[in-house]
Specification:
The chain has one domain. It is mainly alpha-helical.
């Protein structure tokens, strides 16, 4: 049976976060550098296919986030693909980094650092 929760919200490991960031930056770089080839016309479906593939890969790595919806929509609008929207969306979603607990007992709460006041 397919676990929908695992698909929509997989654990964000550092590897997944950095891979998603790399995929987003690479996709935006391809769209900016190859802009003359992606101008509306015969090759525009290649640009759309790139966006669909990037969307699936990023959602598979990070899970679904509402931030990806305006990004997907903006990529369809002509000349909006020159804005690095994939990179911005992924950096926004991963701004806190990985969400998995550190190595050790997964049931144990994460200890907060103790800050002491220095009295002079």
């Amino acid at each position: 049976m397919i676990d929908l929760a695992q698909i929509l919200a997989p654990k964000r490991t550092p590897l997944r976060v950095w891979t998603a960031r790399g995929v987003a930056m690479l996709a935006d770089a391809i769209q900016i550098v190859a802009f003359p080839f992606f101008i509306e016309g015969g090759v525009s479906p290649v640009n759309d296919a790139l966006d669909v593939i990037v969307a699936f890969v990023i959602i598979a790595l990070l899970g679904w986030n509402i931030v990806f919806l305006p990004t997907i929509v903006s990529e369809v609008i002509p000349f909006m693909d020159l804005i690095p929207s994939w990179t911005a969306a992924v950096l926004f979603v991963t701004r806190k980094g990985a969400t998995t607990p550190p190595a050790g007992d997964a049931n144990q709460p994460i200890a907060k650092p103790v800050v002491s006041k220095v009295v002079q």
